[in-house]
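Note to self: keep these together.
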Amino acid sequence: MLFRSLALQVIPGKAADGDYAGIMDLWRSLTTDPMPPGAPQEAESGMAEIPIIAIGFSVAALKLRADAAGSHVAAAVLALGGVSGTVPEAEKFHRAARLIEDAFASVLGGGQLVEMGNKQETTALHVISYLGAMFKLGPAGAFRALCAILPALKGLPKGVYRVLVVPFVRSFWRVAIERDAFAFSAPRLVERQINEALVIEGEASLLPLLTAVGRGLGVSAPQWLRN
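Structure:
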């Protein structure tokens, strides 16, 4: 059980470094560290979601930078798709491999990826689909997609959320205002508000950041964000 806890702390760093094979090697090791007696089967299944989400956010962050994103998609597909069928949750990893390719290296449109995401039965696969859609929907659609998945993401282990999710959200909107400023009303004002929010470190920056983005796009923020 101690090894399992330590592994969860290591996965975010490996994902940030693009070490997808290392993540899956770690997962294989985790399967030899059994859950505590009486733990529900859902707990084991939920554990499998963490490496998938971590790899998905790593690929998305690299796609934002557009440097070697294609090779990282291929590496992610290889790492996830290469999991032996004897490993617990193997089919979930194999489906994630196919979905990452669809989300980040295919001609599917944003609407198609959202539809695919809505058909997924697990949080991780739903998140991967919506992450891919964010790059193809335009700022307003991307904002809605992000707001749809953020509540579930906030329930992830803190390391995954703080090391992978928060930096991606911050970077996505910094890039969006630079590349597509005129999708926002009063783009100079919105850019200033975004930059002011980004001065705040870490997770605390998300509320002012997403509030500024939503107002600039004329998209109503969800109730959980307004509270």
